[in-house]
Design a protein that fits this description.
Belongs to the low molecular weight phosphotyrosine protein phosphatase family. This protein is an alpha/beta fold and 163 residues long. The protein contains five helices and four strands, in the order βαβαβααβα.
Length: 163
């Protein structure tokens, strides 16, 4: 059974689709396709059925990432099939903890930037939606920096399963 990771932001059109795309690329580079599955969702359903924000798609494409995406809302029932739920900021972390059916499920929730070894005390990935192109570039940089550490943590979990 694959290790399942879900990235969660507000509307699932900017940060979480970017994190999903970057992490999928890291998984493929590591040769872990099929062993690790990534997807994304939003805490709210405002953009359900929509594609990712065109600015996010543009920035991802310019950096070589695939950006096929349709927004959806995170459902509490998903905790049962997920190994890790990655919040993009503290607000998402709180919302997800409220949705977690059990304490075990709540322990699956982590902030993305907590995996960035060079990160600072601010673990939020700022929402680029109301900003400009530079904000999307900054978001991508933060996501890329944390994705390497996240992949290392997931790889460790996979090795623990095999032992």
């Amino acid at each position: 059974m694959p290790y399942r990771v879900c990235f969660v932001c507000t509307g699932n059109i900017c940060r979480s689709p970017m994190a999903e795309a970057v992490f999928r690329a890291r998984v493929a580079e590591a040769g872990l396709e099929g062993r690790v599955v990534a997807d994304s969702a939003g805490t709210g359903g405002w953009h359900e059925g929509e594609h990712a924000d065109p600015r996010a798609v543009s920035v991802l494409g310019e950096h070589g990432y695939d950006s096929e995406h349709v927004a959806r809302r995170f459902e509490p029932s998903w905790f049962a099939r997920l190994d890790l739920v990655i919040a993009l900021d503290a607000g998402h972390l709180k919302a997800l903890r409220r949705l977690a059916p059990t304490e075990k499920d709540a322990r699956k929730i982590r902030l993305l930037r907590s995996f960035d070894p060079a990160g600072d005390d601010d673990l939020d990935v700022p929402d680029p939606y109301y900003g400009g192109r530079d904000d999307f570039e900054e978001c991508l940089e933060m996501v890329e920096a944390a994705s390497t550490g996240l992949l290392a943590a997931v790889r460790e979990e996979l090795e623990g399963r095999a032992a």
